[in-house]
Amino acid sequence: DFNIVFAIQEPTESIQKNINSVSQSIIHLPITDDYQTDASTFSEHLNPDDIVILDGYRFKSNYQKTIKDKSCKLIVIDDLHAWHHYADGIINHAEGIDKSVYSAEEYTQFYLGLNYVLLRKPFLESTKETKKINAVKKIFISMGAADINNLSQKFTEALIQLKSIEEIHLMLGTINPNLQSIETLIQTNKQANIHTHFDISAAELALLLKKCDVCICPASSISLESCAIGIGLISGYTAENQLGILRG
Q: DSSP class of residue 209?
């Protein structure tokens, strides 16, 4: 129904690859930490019949006003509710959230809770299936692309001690600063059957989660994807923006 265009400050090769899986149209914005300049540069590409979707923590009140001044429709994905919104619509798929926590214009519409869950197609389709877990033998771990605190390795070291665990699958990002340390752990514990996964597609991730029994991850989108698959879930939070989903 729509022509989809991504606007992003100079993407890395892997991010551009992900974008190209759904759209060939990318607006390359100059790299800057001045988000008012970024808003002005981005707005030059906009037409009044465009629908703009903002997803990030730098798109605050003034940024939104710049977009609205172009007469665009504006949708904001926001789970922090920490500033005033000028958006036409706000999406927050954390269950149990109430619009009273937001400051917004009178015209702003709210799309809150799991009825508006932002799941990719392979996970939406998986909700029609029923997964049965008879034993916990295969573990999936995803602690975010950067995983600064190296939680992936800490959990792996703990799981290696459990003889009942047959496989450990780690979803890692290329920007993870601990990759060499994790690789050393894998090489010195080959009996543990540890596998690493980078830049996998939604379909590949869905298949991998179906193969595993328990997922260990923060309460981010991956936790909702795990719920859609029906895998066992051990979760917590590594950033404040995950608290809404965690409480839900």
A: H
